[in-house]
Structure formats: C-alpha cells, structure tokens
C-alpha cells in the first residue's frame, strides 16, 4: 500500500476524532478567518488583486466579490498569511491553516458544504499534512524549503478532495497532483512573496482536488518512489514514513500554534522568554545592557533582518521583536507598520539585541531544540531562560478570552465582531458556508444588522 493510499485511508474516516479535536479545529478555522480579514488591505493582498481580473463564480473572496474556486483560494490564502498572524504547524513545517482554510472554503462553497463538512475536511487535511511531512521532517525545512508551499498543499488537497466528495482513491490522487506543485524557498521570507506562497499553495490544493475529481491522474507512490517527493525534498537524508493506523489525531497530540504576536514564529520563544524574565525580576528597558537569544539553525536562517527597514522585514527580525517585547506585553498589528518600524526608541534598542546559534550538540539533542535567552543588566545582574514552546502551543494554549479578543481585533472591534465569533463557535451547526463567506467578503461592520439578530 503506497504512502498516499495509507494517508487517504486514514483521513477518510479511519483516524479517530474526539470532541476536543473538533473544538480545536473550529478554533483554528475561526483564527484563520480573523487573519484573512485583517490581511485584506495589506500590500501583498492588494498587489495580487491589482494584477488579476477575477472571473465570476460562487466563492467569496477578499475582493468583496464572488469568483472561482481557484481565484478565491489564491486571494484568501494571501490575505490569511499577509500579516504572519496565522498559526504554525510543526508536523507539517507549515502555516497549515492559511493554506487549508481558504482552499476548503472555496471548494466547499462550490460543493454546497455544511459547517460540519468544513470541520471534517479541516481535520482530514491537517492529519494529511502531518503524515506527508513526516518522511522529510525536519531536514526539509532546515534546508530552506518553505513547508507552507511544499507540504501544506499536499495535505490540504486531501481535505479539499474530501469536502468535494471524492473517495479514498480520489483523495490519494488529489495529493499526488498537489505534490507536483510543491515549491517555495524560505529565502523569500521578509518579502510579500511569502504570503504569496500561501495563496498559491491554497489555489494548488483546491485545483488538485478538482482535477482529481475530473480524472487527472498522478503516481500513487510519488512520495516514496525514486525521484519522488522524499527523494528530491529530503535534503539528502533518506525519507521514511511510518504511519500508525491506530494513532490519535495529530491535533490532539502535537496541536497547532495560533499566534499571540503577528510576526514570524521563530521569534516567539524569544519574546516569551523576555516577557517571563522581565516580569519575574522587575527590570525595564532602561536597565538592560544586552540581550542574547540563541536559536536553532532553521530559525536563525528565517530571521535575516537585524536592522529591518520596513514592516515585512520587521516580522522576520529577532532584534526588532525583542526590542518591542521589552516595552510591551503583547506585540500587535500596530507594531508592524512603516511608522512603527522607524520608532526612534525601538531603533535605539536594536543594537542591544544579538541572535546567535545554539551549539551543534544542543541542536542535535532534540527534534525541536529549546531556545535560550541571556539578559545582562547595567548593574551586572544576569538572567537566563530556556523555552522549547511558545505561548499558543498545545503545552501553553491561549485561553478563551485571548482567542476571542484576537478575532474581534482583527475584524475591527465592536459588538458585531463578537457576535460573529459566537456564531462561528457553533460551526458544526451551520447549514452552509454563507456566514463564513460573508465575513470574508464583507467584514463585521457590513454584517452588523444580520449577526446581531437572534439566530
């Protein structure tokens, strides 16, 4: 049985799903919708819109218009990832939801899917991402491949195929076709090409499902065969898949990492350590002589901007994010604007922050090595911390109020945004995807009269 066949069998109903798993999936979909709305006006999204003339269709896009599956998935995928506020997914080495949610909503709207079907498809796609990435993790990502562009479309195609009504063989074929679209170098981080990666991946996943449903075919063994995905994308390390058909769903074991701060996930351990030390010992930015953050190689390569010149570079700057963390407890969307990046107080602090590599021994001791922070104060005191997971992960999850506040903030605030959040929390009960589509296309304020009425 090929790897894709095993994955397709598992996500077609063989994988156990608990009520907590479904709740986590709903939370992830809602969080991604919030990021999508917040990213509609970003330069990356607007550039994609300006360059295209969307064709009429039945799928809601951030243009405020209805367009085709492919166009909606592309536009909404760019918007979802534009601000780097969307979740991370370790097993897929990806921004799983920024690819999957736009693809599934677009295919689901065309298929007339229910909210429950959307959640089912999300769980299928996430599990498929984890299993597809298993064979090349972590070498694929460390070598410089952007898993959002490579692994995520393969897994997302499985979810898209499921919501489109394909059988296990059709799901495997959708994943095979999506494998042929895998591409995306991490060297593009800090530019608008990065959110473009997510949009293209969402479009590729959606189209792979539609093409498979129409009869297009690829190799069923394309992950493991010579000159297949593992052979080409494994960074010289032999790829290996070991799929346990009885294993619990990945969302309940490793989980997702929704973001508390709208910047690269590689900065988050550092931000959290600085907050922990600052609150524990009561020092302020004026007391600091130096801050050193030690990270693993993949994270070091992700954060290429020690002296960021714009908001995109700032999202991939450890120095900028740590400077901000010394002055505030949460980094917000307002901290990543052209004006914020030139803040003289923050720029004066940047030279105090250094990012270094963990030792080879530390990096090899764990699949995901803990990061270290060392803060030296002007009076000679020295504080150290270590973290291998950020706030928002399954080991330190966001609480309900934080999730709701992020959604409301991304939608512009107000009672309508809160009401939408409450409706979406009952996603399994939605008879169709019209509310979700309306949020994408129109935003909270335009929906105020509708969502504030009794359900």
What characteristics describe this protein?
455 residues, 53% helix, 2 domains, alpha+beta, 6 strands, 60s Ribosomal Protein L30, Chain: A, 23 helices
Number of domains: 2
CATH class of the largest domain: Mainly Alpha
Q: What is the helical fraction, as a range of percent?
A: 40-55%
Tell me the strand percentage band. Answer: 5-15%
Mean pLDDT across all amino acids: 95
- Could you tell me the number of beta strands? 6
Order of helices and strands: HHHEEHHHHHHHHHHEHHHHHEHEEHHHH
Describe it.
With 455 residues, the chain is an alpha+beta fold. The protein has 2 domains: 3-253, Orthogonal Bundle (2-methylcitrate dehydratase PrpD), CATH 1.10.4100; 265-387, 2-methylcitrate dehydratase PrpD (60s Ribosomal Protein L30, Chain: A). The protein is 53% helix and 7% strand. The chain is built from 23 helices and 6 strands. It has helices at residues 3-14, 19-38, 43-51, 69-81, 96-111, 115-134, 139-142, 147-163, 168-179, 193-213, 229-233, 250-253, 268-281, 297-302, 311-314, 318-327, 338-341, 344-349, 360-364, 400-410, 415-424, 434-446, 448-451, and strands at 56-60, 66-67, 288-295, 353-357, 371-377, 382-387. The strands form 2 sheets. Strands 4-3-5-6 form a 4-stranded mixed β-sheet. It has a two-stranded antiparallel ribbon with strand order 1-2. A hairpin with a 5-residue loop joins strand 1 and strand 2. The longest helix is centred in the middle third of the chain and has 21 residues, at 193-213. It is globular. The relative contact order is 0.14.
